[in-house]
Amino acid sequence: MSESCGICTPCRAGNFIIQRKLERLQNGLANEADLKELKSWGTIMKNTSRCGLGKTATNSLIYAMDKFHDYFMQRLDKEYNGLNLKFDMEAATEEYEKYKI
């Protein structure tokens, strides 16, 4: 994403969107639609980008998704409800609780 020159929209926007989708996947918040969108954006970038970066940036990701489909399916939120299940309320309020009277 940081290597994009920003001239063509498919590469500039596509890399940003792909990064966000991968963060969702990493945090266990992605669903099957996110995987389909990753592939879709990869195809869009490959077909419409001006340079080699945009045309090849998603090749390894798409190949990995095809080759290791089971791994990606295990990373999905099976009961997708759109909530951030990784948020730790106790850790977030710990500092506040120290000063509570």
Please mark out the parts with pLDDT under 50 across 5 or more consecutive residues, or reply none.
Answer: none
Distance from first to last alpha carbon: 47 Å
Determine and state the CATH class. Mainly Alpha
**Envelope shape:** elongated
Largest sheet: none
Which fold does the CATH topology refer to? Answer: de novo design (two linked rop proteins)
Return the domain count. 1
Oligomer: single chain
Count of helix runs: 6
Rg result: 18 Å
Q: If you had to describe this structure to a student in words, what would you say it looks like?
A:
By secondary structure, the protein is mainly alpha-helical. The chain has a single domain (9-98), classed as Up-down Bundle (de novo design (two linked rop proteins)). The protein is built from six helices and no strands. It has helices at residues 9-26, 32-48, 52-56, 59-67, 69-74, 89-98. α1 (9-26) packs antiparallel against α2 (32-48) and α2 (32-48) runs antiparallel to α4 (59-67). The longest helix has 18 residues, at 9-26. The mean pLDDT is 82.
Secondary structure layout plus pairing:
Blueprint: H1 9-26, H2 32-48, H3 52-56, H4 59-67, H5 69-74, H6 89-98
Quick structural gist:
The protein is mainly α and 101 residues long.
Describe the structure using short key phrases.
single chain, about 100 residues, mainly alpha, de novo design (two linked rop proteins), about 65% helix
